[in-house]
Recover the amino acids of this structure.
């Protein structure tokens, strides 16, 4: 499991355990570090005290996600938000169905790669392509 230090962190705020639980498992399986809140106040507390960046908020309609996202911007102005909807027809680019949420997250956040491959090389590359 990712440690949250080099992988994108997602805060999932969802009171529907069926939707939220499967979504969390799918995101963790993809390598994301996932923080879980069952309601708005818990999400606010997590955002307030978590020491690392939170890259994305995923929240549902029943939690009043847009209001929650606006409140979280006070603590996490850089955090993006996606809102999970159960309606088949949606027009807004920040709305996503739970079945396609992981794919939308992958489009917004760079998918976790090999953490070793992502480390910078020590030294400077020379003109022949080697490292000095």
């Amino acid at each position: 499991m990712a440690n949250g230090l080099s992988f994108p962190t997602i805060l999932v705020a969802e009171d529907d355990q069926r939707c939220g639980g499967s979504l969390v498992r799918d995101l963790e399986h993809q390598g994301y570090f996932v923080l879980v809140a069952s309601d708005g106040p818990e999400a606010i507390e997590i955002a307030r005290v978590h020491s690392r960046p939170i890259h994305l908020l995923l929240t549902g309609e029943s939690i009043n996600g847009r209001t929650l996202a606006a409140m979280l911007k006070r603590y996490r102005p850089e955090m993006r938000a996606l809102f999970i909807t159960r309606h088949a027809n949606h027009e807004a680019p920040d709305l996503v169905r739970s079945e396609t949420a992981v794919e939308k997250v992958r489009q917004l956040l760079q998918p976790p790669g090999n953490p070793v491959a992502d480390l910078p090389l020590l030294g400077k590359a020379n003109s022949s392509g080697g490292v000095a």
User: Anything to note?
Assistant: Residues 9-108 form a domain with the Rossmann fold fold (CATH 3.40.50.2300). Helices lie at 17-29, 40-49, 65-72, 101-108.
